[in-house]
Amino acid sequence: MKSEFIARGSAPPAQTEMAADAAGIAEAARILRRGGLVAIPTETVYGLAADATSDAAVGRIYAAKARPKFNPLIAHVTSLEAALAQGVFSADALRLAEAFWPGPLTLVVPLAPGATVCAAARAGQQSIALRVPAHPVALALIAAAGRPLAAPSANRSGRVSPVTAAHVAGDFAGEIYVILDGGRCPVGLESTIIACVEERSSLLRPGGITRTDIEAVLGHALGEPLGAGQVRSPGMSRSHYAPRAKLRLEAATLVKGEAGLDFGGIFSDVKNVLDLSPRRNLAEAAANFFIFLRELDARGPACIAVAPVPHDGLGEAINDRLTRAAAPRDTP
Ligand code: TXA
Ligand code: MG
């Protein structure tokens, strides 16, 4: 079996992209129960999953991603009921979970007494990030593993998030041993993260569910997180999602030699240009975003010019990723 190295501690075999069918899910669950890593599809992006209740298993995620140990992970569970065993839910948190789970929403809540998610997954914090993913493969795998799964996006720390099994394979050539191939992730951007730990719930990361939809369910505006400006959620550091090329945002035209990430067909050039959504649909643009960014970057331009993307709806999350991708690199 390809996974035996985990138990024996011998040299890893070449990685395997496995079909996400019943046999693949059963094998992946076996690897997870033994403390191994499996890359899994979710509706947002691919995750690099491990047993969230084991410090040793979770340690392998941090090592594989070269992720700073202080950056906590999201624990993925199959239901609100399972989440309630791990976290203490405020009225806001309950309302949001009932409205959006399963779905691209992560709730950061105080740790529940008796929670089984380990300290390493929480980076030692007394809060916990929880999510019920809306993807049949992810849900089947969590159920088969019989425990919460910690899973950050399956990219190297600070780099562009993966939305296909091939992206994961490319980032971790030969280092992740099993990738469950569930096709392309339909949402294409990570989950929205809401902190429900202070009196007023606050937005930590815009993502696949819009601020407007969340505020409509809550019946009030989201607050600014306390200590805004500090790195409260370490994934929110200024430079993240970094392609190799530089990014030039809010571009109206292309400069010679640049590749172009278009929105709504404003670049007259079409050579070396990919359009996130010719019809200006933000859900389509979100679904294409990381794929196109990776594809243009792979063509090796020094700079990618990016057309303006509206800031409303899913545009808030797209612009958040663009700003971080364009920021001066403070990650290696
Ligand atoms: O869509 C997603 O959320 C994907 C899929 C795989 O589920 N996962 C994902 O994980 O984006 P990751 O690790 O790339 O981003 C999780 C973010 C990080 O910025 C981390 O700092 C934050 O969640 N986070 C986790 N636990 C936290 C906590 N207790 N307090 C504050 N932020 C937390
Ligand atoms: Mg990430």
At a glance:
The chain has 332 residues and is an alpha/beta fold. It has helices at 4-8, 22-33, 55-65, 80-84, 91-100, 136-145, 165-171, 211-218, 282-298, 315-326, and strands at 16-19, 38-40, 47-51, 74-76, 105-110, 127-131, 149-150, 178-181, 192-195, 202-205, 246-248, 259-262, 273-275, 303-306. The longest helix has 17 residues, at 282-298.
What does this protein look like?
The structure is a single chain. This protein is an alpha/beta fold and 332 residues long. Helices cover 29% and strands 16% of the residues. It contains ten helices and 14 strands. The protein has helices spanning 4-8, 22-33, 55-65, 80-84, 91-100, 136-145, 165-171, 211-218, 282-298, 315-326, and strands at 16-19, 38-40, 47-51, 74-76, 105-110, 127-131, 149-150, 178-181, 192-195, 202-205, 246-248, 259-262, 273-275, 303-306. The strands form three sheets. Strands 2-3-7-4-6-5-9-10 form an eight-stranded mixed β-sheet, with helices on both faces. A four-stranded parallel β-sheet has the order 11-14-12-13, with helices on one face. A hairpin with a 6-residue loop joins strand 2 and strand 3 (47-51). The two termini are 35 Å apart. Bound molecules: threonylcarbamoyladenylate and magnesium ion. The site of threonylcarbamoyladenylate (TXA) has 29 residues, from strand 5 and strand 6. Magnesium ion is lined by residues 152-153, 161, 235.
